[in-house]
Amino acid sequence: APHVLDRCRALVDPALREAVGRLHPWLGEMAAYSFGWCEVGGAPVAGTGGKGVRQALAVLGAEAAGAPARTGVPAAVAVELVHAFSLVHDDIMDADVTRRRRPTVWKAYGTGPAVLAGDALFALAVETLAAAPGGPGAVVPLSAALREVMRGQADDLLFAERPWTGPDRVRPAEYRAMAEGKTGALLGCAAALGARLAGAPPSTVAALDRAGRQLGVAFQIVDDVLGIWGDPAVTGKPVHGDLRERKKTLPVLLALDAPTPAARRLAALLAAGGDAEEAAELVERAGGRRAALAEAGRSVAAVERALGGTALREPAVAGLRSLLGFLVDREL
C-alpha cells in the first residue's frame, strides 16, 4: 500500500498546496503546519504529514470507475482539507497536545487561531470541490458525510459521560455506529466522490461508499487495539494510553460484556479508577482484544463484498485492497 499512497500523494500534493496557498497567509501557515509542511513560523520541513489515506481513496475511486487518476484530484484535495479541519478541531476538543510527534495546532498557535484555521480549511474544501467539473452536485454528499462525522464525534464525547457498566453503559453496537460516523463516513465519501467526479453510475458510487465506510470501521477498531497494546515507538502514543485516558474503546466494551470473572474484575477496576496496565491485562483475559479483532475482520469481509459486487476496474480494486491490508495489518 505505501506505493499506492506515494503515487496518489505525488498527484494530489501540488493541488493541495495550491489550494492552501489561497488562504490568508497566517491561516495558510497554520494549515501548512497541520499538514506537516512547515515549522511554527513557516520554515519549510521536508516531511509529509499523515498517511494520505483519504486522498488515495478519492483517486482510486475515480480510477475504479474507469477515469484517469487526475479526475479524482479535486475530490482528494477536498477530503484531505476536511480531514485536516476535523483533526485541528478534534485536538482542541480532546485537549491533545501532540499529534505526529509534534505540538498540535492549538498548542503551537493558540485555541482561537486553531479554531479559525479549521474553519478556513473547511471553507476551502467546499470551494475546491464545487469548482471542479461535476463538483457542485458532489458538495451535497460531502456535507452529508460531514454531518455524520459530527454525529460520531458527538456520540464519542457523550460516551465519556456514561458509566462503564449497568443499563446506561455504552453497547458495542452503539460504538460501531459511532465509528462508522466518525471515521467511516469520510473514508466512504472519499472513494464515492472520486467515482462521482468520474461520472460513475449510482450503484458504483454506493458500492465504493460502503467499502470506504467499512474500511473506516476496521481502521478505527485496529486503532483502538493499538491504543491499548501498540508499541509507543511505532504508534507515537503512550503505552496503554487509551486506558489511562479512560476512553470507551471497543476492546474494553467487548471485554466488559463477557460473562467471565476477568470481566467482573475489570468492571470493578475501571469503577475504582485503577491501574491501566492491570486493566489492559484484564481486557485481554476477558477476550476483548480477540473479540475486537474479530469485529475488524467482519468489517474487512464487508469491504471485500462491496468491492466484489460491482463492475470496478481491476488495477484500482487491487490498489484499494492493498490499502485495506496496510490499514488493518498495522503492527498488529
UniProtKB/TrEMBL annotation:
Belongs to the FPP/GGPP synthase family. This is Polyprenyl synthetase family protein. GO terms for biological process: isoprenoid biosynthetic process. PANTHER family: (2E,6E)-FARNESYL DIPHOSPHATE SYNTHASE (PTHR12001:SF71), GERANYLGERANYL PYROPHOSPHATE SYNTHASE (PTHR12001). It comes from Streptomyces adustus. CDD domains: Trans_IPPS_HT. Keywords: Magnesium, Metal-binding, Transferase. GO terms for molecular function: metal ion binding; prenyltransferase activity. Pfam families: polyprenyl_synt. It comes from the Bacteria.
